[in-house]
Write a structure and sequence with these properties.
By secondary structure, the chain is α/β, with parallel strands linked by helices. The chain has two domains: 27-109 and 200-249, Periplasmic binding protein-like II (D-Maltodextrin-Binding Protein, domain 2, 3-Layer(aba) Sandwich), CATH 3.40.190; 110-197, Periplasmic binding protein-like II (D-Maltodextrin-Binding Protein, domain 2). It has eight helices and nine strands. Strands 1, 2, 3, 4, 5, 6, 7, 8 and 9 form a nine-stranded mixed β-sheet that branches. Helix 3 (45-60) crosses helix 7 and helix 3 packs antiparallel against helix 8. Residues 1-20 form the signal peptide. This is Amino acid ABC transporter substrate-binding protein.
Length: 256
């Protein structure tokens, strides 16, 4: 009987060790935009799906995920200085690799111009979100040619009021705003797919971060684990993310 009890205890202990989370888990703090919680609550599709999938992947590996919200340019500055672990979600924009290293791809997005439904070319005033540094929303528009605004909401409002002719941003985020808090502008603002560019989505980590290799390793492991476990695919389906925006969506990526 004693041997049976000891064997049972050994099996129980093995299972505890096999399935317990590592004791050396870390907290990964990512910079996000000022409306992070709103984007989760209102289900901005690719954003909510990737946040949920990453969170589950990290937690399975014994880590925690936290958000630090701020206006976009400030959030990026916190990451660049190494104060925060990464920028979520970060498109691989032109010149961004001068200051950042990127995780494995977590999706795709289309970048281009929103304009008024009644707009007729040529455009005189272009606007875009203030990204800071040399980051470019579109490769063919030099930063100095854009009127910068602190938030996409502000830019779309200027567009709606006729103060600017075109506003450069991602298609997905723009449509999310027009379907939620800026719904009153939906009928007279449209996305123009002409000259749009498809960008891969990642988490950007500053080259100045003192532990960038470790942070990159943890995030890439969590991304891979999330895909292997089906968390990523389930989150994409639940949040109705178009297939062209998935990790394997590059072959299907097309203009809306």
């Amino acid at each position: 009987m004693t041997r049976v009890v000891l064997l049972a205890f050994a099996i129980y202990a093995f299972h505890l060790c096999a399935f317990a989370k590592p004791s050396n888990g870390e907290t990964i703090t990512l910079a996000v935009g000022h409306d992070h919680q709103s984007m989760l609550d209102n289900r901005y599709d690719v954003y909510r799906a990737n946040w949920d999938a990453l969170k589950m992947g990290l937690e399975d590996l014994g880590h925690q995920l936290e958000a630090s919200a701020a206006p976009w340019a400030r959030a990026k500055a916190y990451v660049q200085s190494g104060q925060l672990d990464g920028l979520f979600i970060a498109a691989r924009l032109p010149a961004r690799d001068k200051w950042a290293v990127f995780t494995d791809t977590i999706g795709y997005e289309i970048y281009g111009f929103f304009e008024r439904s009644t707009f007729t070319p040529p455009a005189q005033i272009y606007a875009g979100i203030r990204l800071g540094g040399e980051d470019r929303v579109l490769s063919f528009i030099p930063p100095e040619q854009l009127l910068y605004v602190p938030t996409a909401q502000r830019g779309l409002k200027l567009l709606s009021d006729g103060k600017v002719d075109r506003f450069a941003m991602s298609y997905g985020y723009g449509q999310y705003l027009l379907n939620t808090e800026l719904k009153n502008m939906q009928s007279h603002i449209r996305f123009n797919p002409e000259n749009s560019e498809i960008r891969s989505l990642h988490i950007a980590i500053s080259k100045q971060h003192p532990n960038k290799e470790r942070v990159l390793q943890i995030l890439n492991q969590a991304i891979a684990h999330s895909v292997a476990k089906g968390y990523y695919q389930a989150a994409m389906i639940k949040n109705k993310v178009p297939k062209r925006m998935w990790i394997n969506g590059q072959s299907e990526a097309s203009l809306p």
